[in-house]
Design brief:
Keywords: Signal. With 292 residues, this protein is mostly beta strands. The protein has no helices and 20 strands.
């Protein structure tokens, strides 16, 4: 299957300088670094020329706003807990959904998605479990880890992350639940076999009915040399809400150096921004601009 042709921008959360397009181009920046407070950026929503970010675990219930050049504009504190934030999405009314559903060990008894209305400052809670979830550990059925979420037509769609170790089947599970405050058991919709890759972020183009998933693999060569590859997976031409039943295209966006890309969002209907956490091995991500 030939690779899809769509524009990609990669940014690294530890990157330092804004690289402008030459000769006064009006293209958005190819590459920039985020403030030090966002060294573990894990989720991204783009609203016009504002970029809304959150960190991974270890930070508080904070929502960071930057401009399109990565300059910090504001920090909002949500009336929420912060265990392990993994992704963020926005519905058609502008409300934000912040997913506190990281579960690397499989020991969580439940998860929470916070719905935040920036116009009123009100934060609501959507508490959920997976079918069979008991918190006994990641190797037991029902104790899923998740790092990717989108919202569409009043439903939240979650895409689980498998474990890159052992004899794993590498299936992504697609769950959904209402985008309304309450307590729910997530409904299993479908699953997708994704050899040697795990999902770390998602964004949805509701106008074109295209879902983009960020994935990566990681392995050690010769017992000591870390290597990895990041991919962008595009799903299209699917029945309503059945993302895995459509066309699937995969494109590699980074090779060799183990950089974990987590945040992805659509900018201006023409581009994607993908962000990677800072690492000691790779300080800058590769930046590309490809026309649709």
């Amino acid at each position: 299957m030939s690779p899809s042709r769509f524009p990609i921008h990669l940014c690294t959360c530890a990157l330092a300088a804004l690289l402008l397009s030459a000769c006064g181009s009006t293209y958005p920046p190819r590459k920039f670094r985020l403030p030090e407070r966002l060294s573990e950026a894990s989720g991204l929503v783009i609203d016009d020329n504002r970029m809304l970010w959150h960190n991974d675990s270890g930070d508080g219930p904070y929502l960071y706003t930057t401009d399109i050049h990565g300059e910090l504009l504001a920090v909002d504190t949500l009336a929420a807990d912060a265990v392990d934030y993994e992704d963020i999405c926005q519905d058609d009314t502008g409300r934000l959904y912040l997913g506190d559903f990281g579960n690397n060990t499989g020991r969580r008894p439940d998860q929470t998605i916070y719905r935040y209305d920036s116009t009123t400052g009100v934060t609501d809670s959507i508490v959920f479990t997976y079918p069979g979830q008991d918190g006994r550990g990641i190797d037991y059925p029902g104790n899923y880890n998740c790092e990717a979420m989108v919202v569409a037509d009043g439903q939240l769609h979650l895409f689980t992350k498998d474990v890159l170790s052992g004899n794993r089947p590498f299936y992504i599970k697609h769950f959904r639940l209402p985008a309304q405050p309450g307590t729910y058991e997530a409904e299993l919709v479908d699953s997708l076999y994704l050899p040697r890759r795990v999902i770390t972020g998602a964004t949805l183009d509701r106008q074109r009915n295209e879902l983009y998933l960020v994935a990566y693999n990681f392995r050690v060569l010769l017992g000591f040399l870390p290597t990895g590859a990041a991919s962008l997976i595009k799903l299209s031409n699917y029945p309503e809400g059945a993302f895995f039943r459509g066309d699937i295209e995969r494109r590699n966006v980074a090779w060799a150096v183990p950089t974990q890309h987590e945040a992805v969002a659509i900018y201006n209907d023409a581009y994607l921004y993908i962000a990677a956490e800072a690492t000691r091995i790779r300080k800058r991500a590769i930046a590309r601009r490809i026309k649709r």
